[in-house]
């Protein structure tokens, strides 16, 4: 029999389950409307870059330590190259005095860990059709039906690009180094990942025009391996495709409002950004932390769905999400154009940033805590 709920959460992903666990730890009764998670699929090639703030949240929820060791890999160094010889920026965890710049996490394993934690939490009731609650939190993703039912407009600008993802086996150890190449109009990233299917290899995320991404999704593995060798200049040796390939369209999106009387939006239901900075899930988990803090600090007489209370959450997240959206979109626009003058400007800019240590530290701090 379904229990009465303080909060109902709509969504089947990492953000919805993380929020359910956070609110349950507060002592709230949570109704989670989510599809039961399937066992981790061998064809799920997604990987996420998590910042220390997101990792700390998952540790608090006891989902991080439950991950298999090979499902999470520390990024100790990051090397970003422009589209001119010698242009680029290098970041080091040692120089920034942090344990890791980020952690690369297998998506399916993280979902499975959170699903297990949710299933055994007595304050979370998994319901296909939950009843009413004082507060409804929408975490259904960028195509949320509930957001539409609430009448909240979602401003979306497609890039005409798709991301191509797969797993790659490398000739040698990755040494905790993440690589990224900005070459108009593409962004190619190799994220270090220790998984049985790729050893000490990489997760590939390659943003490119949609038709081109679909071509490489269907191409022979040998053809994809050859083009990756050319694009990377062989700096990581020859790479071998070791998994299925997936693509998804890229866009910039923002909900007209993220809260109202009795409801709030979190994660991709509230905002979508380009993956070039690897901050999409970090933004969603920052939403989770912000809403959790606002609800925990509410006055004893104030209802969970109080509009004024939920505006505190909206204000708390306004700057961070806006700044990340503008930053990622601006960077993509800068590298999407191939005009010679613009190419020279951006590559000189990258080289200059690489030489200014305080600026590099500031950039890293922004990424470490969104």
| Beta fraction | 25-35%
Distance between termini?
A: 39 Å
The tally of domains stands at: 1
Biggest sheet details = 9 strands, mixed
GO molecular function, one term: FAD binding
Domain FAD-binding: 133-326
Protein name: 2-octaprenyl-3-methyl-6-methoxy-1,4-benzoquinol hydroxylase
Question: Care to describe what's here?
Answer:
GO terms for molecular function: 2-octaprenyl-6-methoxyphenol hydroxylase activity; FAD binding. Pfam families: FAD_binding_3. InterPro entries: FAD-bd (IPR002938), FAD/NAD-bd_sf (IPR036188), Ubi_Hdrlase_CS (IPR018168), UbiH/COQ6_monooxygenase (IPR051205). It comes from Ideonella livida. Residues 133-326 form the FAD-binding domain. The protein is globular. The chain has a single domain, classed as 3-Layer(bba) Sandwich (FAD/NAD(P)-binding domain). The protein has eleven helices and 18 strands. The chain is α/β, with parallel strands linked by helices and 370 residues long. The model has no long low-confidence stretch (mean pLDDT 89). The protein has helices at 14-25, 52-60, 93-96, 107-119, 145-149, 210-218, 221-232, 280-296, 307-336, 340-355, 357-368, and strands spanning 7-10, 30-33, 47-50, 72-75, 77-81, 88-92, 102-106, 124-126, 135-138, 154-170, 177-183, 186-195, 199-209, 239-241, 246-255, 259-260, 263-265, 271-272. The longest helix has 30 residues, at 307-336. The strands form three sheets. Strands 5, 6, 10, 11, 12, 13, 14, 15 and 18 form a nine-stranded mixed beta sheet that branches. Helix 1 (14-25) runs parallel beside helix 4 (107-119) and helix 8 (280-296) packs antiparallel against helix 9. The chain is 38% helix and 28% strand.
């Amino acid at each position: 029999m379904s229990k009465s709920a303080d909060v109902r959460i709509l969504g089947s992903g990492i953000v919805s389950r993380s929020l359910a666990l956070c609110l349950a730890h507060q002592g709230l009764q949570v109704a989670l409307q989510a599809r039961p998670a399937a066992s981790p699929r061998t064809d799920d090639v997604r990987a996420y870059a998590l910042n220390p703030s997101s990792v700390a949240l998952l540790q608090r929820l006891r989902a991080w330590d439950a991950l298999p060791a090979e499902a999470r890999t520390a990024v100790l160094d990051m090397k970003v190259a422009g589209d001119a010889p010698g242009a680029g920026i290098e970041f080091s965890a040692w120089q920034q005095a942090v344990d890791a710049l980020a952690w690369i996490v297998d998506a399916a394993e993280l979902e499975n860990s959170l699903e297990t934690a949710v299933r055994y939490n007595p304050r979370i009731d998994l319901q296909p059709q939950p009843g009413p609650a004082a507060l409804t939190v929408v975490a259904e993703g960028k195509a949320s039906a509930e957001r539409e039912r609430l009448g909240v407009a979602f401003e979306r600008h497609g890039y005409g690009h798709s991301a191509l993802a797969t797993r790659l086996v490398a000739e040698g150890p990755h040494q905790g180094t993440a690589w990224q190449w900005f070459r108009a109009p593409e962004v190619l990233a190799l994220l270090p990942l220790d998984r049985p299917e790729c050893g000490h290899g990489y997760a590939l995320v390659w943003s490119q025009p949609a038709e081109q991404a679909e071509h490489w999704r269907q191409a022979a593995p040998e053809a994809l391996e050859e083009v990756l060798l050319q694009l990377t200049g062989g700096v990581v040796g020859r790479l071998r495709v070791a998994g299925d390939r997936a693509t998804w369209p890229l866009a910039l999106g923002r909900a007209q409002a993220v809260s109202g009387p009795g409801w709030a939006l979190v994660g991709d239901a509230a905002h979508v950004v380009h993956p070039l900075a690897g901050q999409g899930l970090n933004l969603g988990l920052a939403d989770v932390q912000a809403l959790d803090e606002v609800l925990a600090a509410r006055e004893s007489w104030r209802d969970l769905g109080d509009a004024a209370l939920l505006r505190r959450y909206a204000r708390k997240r306004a700057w961070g999400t806006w700044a990340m959206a503008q930053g990622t979109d601006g960077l993509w626009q800068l590298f999407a154009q191939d005009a010679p003058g613009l190419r020279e400007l951006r590559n000189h800019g990258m080289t200059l940033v690489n030489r200014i240590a305080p600026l590099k530290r500031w950039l890293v701090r922004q990424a470490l805590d969104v």
